[in-house]
């Protein structure tokens, strides 16, 4: 047989048998610790070096909230912007905060109600649903960093060739992989810096930080939360699945792939490391890149992990009628409620 279909299937099956054997040989606690350490290693470490202090460059009054722009850095020689949305009338006490992570698109402005040039986006929102604005309108502070590789954080060498280039994921991911690092590792280092910053703000209750990420931002949200216990409640939208049914079945951006992850666990077990923290999984019934069948398998496995830990009520699921997009019909309120407890 010349075609490798059956051989590839066998490779996956044999790998999963090995994973099952590893699981049987370890205690649950040991496995959780090992997987967390492995994740840190596989995504690669980014050297920090000398970092400049945060600088606020903009403060704008918007309907119901104030929007600030802060410039941060997690790696010497590389800065990033983040929007901070602060609800009006928040001077009385410290408020919960949410780290809001966008997926593929033009960056944080896409979730903070703006067009790429920073002007207000008055048209109906796209798949990101201006979700940072939806959250601040529910009374929580939001920090929305610009994920590297998108919008104004695309490589100049990409935008000079094509100003409409969708992202710089490919060139950044391949170089970092060849250096034994990953684009996820760099993105996570910056997101953790964003968390450092938001907990330092006097308006924020540092014990009440949540995270919400969509699509590629879902990958970043769960990874950041596994590695950073300051993130107390998590919403993953348009991401939860099995590797086999999503990134191994459909052509996805290279930034979704971390070499070696599958040799330790399938995606639901990685996401299950968030147990027993409150977790909300949202997915569209007609999301064809993170398909329903894979979502249902992942949901069942993650539910099993929560059940075994006696934390079944801390997992909430919403499979909504829609595609690869945010719904928010239950997840926004759920997240705000979790952080107000
Ligand atoms: Zn990408």
UniProtKB/TrEMBL annotation:
It comes from the Bacteria. SUPFAM superfamilies: alpha/beta-Hydrolases (SSF53474). Keywords: Hydrolase. Pfam families: Abhydrolase_7. One of its GO terms (molecular function) is hydrolase activity. PANTHER family: DIENELACTONE HYDROLASE DOMAIN-CONTAINING PROTEIN-RELATED. The lineage of its organism: Bacteria, Bacillati, Bacillota, Bacilli, Bacillales. It comes from Paenibacillus lemnae. This is Dienelactone hydrolase.
